[in-house]
Amino acid sequence: MENALYMKDSYLKEFEAVVESVKDDRYIVLSQTAFYPKGGGQEHDTGILICNGEEYPVVFAGKFEGKISHEISKPGLKLGDKVTGKIDWDRRYRHMRMHTAAHIIDAILYNEAKALCTGNQLGIDKSRIDFSLDVLDREKIQQYIDMANEWVNKAIDVKIYFLPREEALKIPGVVKLAAVMPPEVKELRIVEIPGIDLQADGGTQVKNTSEIGKISLVSVENKGKNNRRMYYTLD
Ligand SMILES: [Zn+2]
Fold first, then answer.
1. What number is the average pLDDT over the span 156-177?
2. CB within 5 A of ion ligand 1: which residues?
3. CA 54 to centroid of ligand 1, rounded, Å
4. How far apart are CA 207 and CA 53, in angstroms?
5. Which of 15, 35, 106, 143 is the 20 to 30 Å CA partner of 5?
């Protein structure tokens, strides 16, 4: 995914590209893109593609056969068209803050309770973390959130870098969700929050944990020993 610009720069809001393919007048593949495609628990970006002064709203972005496809709600783009892409930054930035917060919470759940995260769903209003844990205690979960906020307040710079696959896989615990790591990828993108978390990850992240703001626990649900659930939001 060397044309996935968000992998190297989560803060890129605007970019230039050429239309590489058009399917059914609405599914557009570009030579490069900053649009994050739905996946890894993070929702897709929205925004617009601009061509010859005409705006084409991007209502969905997904990964299909290894390529990022942008669904536009208005026909007219053609193969070879030069476009300027602009992502809806408010939506994306919220997802970035939610995503880095999830990494910190997941790390604390594991470090404090050996609880394994079994799934994340990042949202605009609230985000969900599913995890396995023997005894579910709401007070304890609240304590973990308090600890997460301590890490947020330490204002730690988040590091993003690439490592060859074999080298990366030697780092203990680098792959947190094994199922989402396609085997054909030769270089893994590493997201490190020094002192608390390091993992292979393809999502967009904030540069510094202080950007998260304050994490608040919304609710805790018990869906069985191997399926605990919490919702959190950001103030
Ligand atoms: Zn992640």
1. 86
2. 201, 203
3. 35
4. 33
5. 106
**CA distances from residue 144 to 80, 100, 118, 154, 232 in whole angstroms, order as listed:** 51, 15, 17, 16, 12
Q: How far does residue 202's CA lie from ligand 1's centre (Å)?
A: 7
- Measure the N-to-C terminal CA separation of the chain; round to a whole number of Å: 33
Question: Helix 89-113 vs helix 138-153: angle between axes, to the nearest 10 degrees?
Answer: 120
Reported confidence tier of residue 45, pLDDT bands at 50, 70, 90: very high
Least confidently predicted of 15-19, 111-115, 184-188, 198-202: 184-188
Pick from 235, 210, 232, 234: which is nearest to 109 by CA?
232
Average confidence (pLDDT) over 71-84:
97
- Domains belonging to the chain, first-starting first, are 15-87 (2.40.30.130), 92-234 (3.30.980.10)
The Cα–Cα gap between 15 and 111 comes to: 40
Q: Which two tokens stand for residue 97?
A: 């803050």
Q: Per DSSP, which regions of 88-210 are E strands?
A: 116-121, 127-132, 159-164, 187-193, 197-200
**How do residues 135-147 score in pLDDT, each as one tens digit?**
889 999 999 999 9
Lateral strand order in the sheet of 127-132: 116-121, 127-132, 228-234, 215-222
Q: What whole-number distance in Å separates Cα of residue 226 and Cα of residue 199?
A: 22
* Distance from the alpha carbon of residue 29 to the mean position of ligand 1, in angstroms: 24
Q: 61 or 223, which is more confident?
A: 61
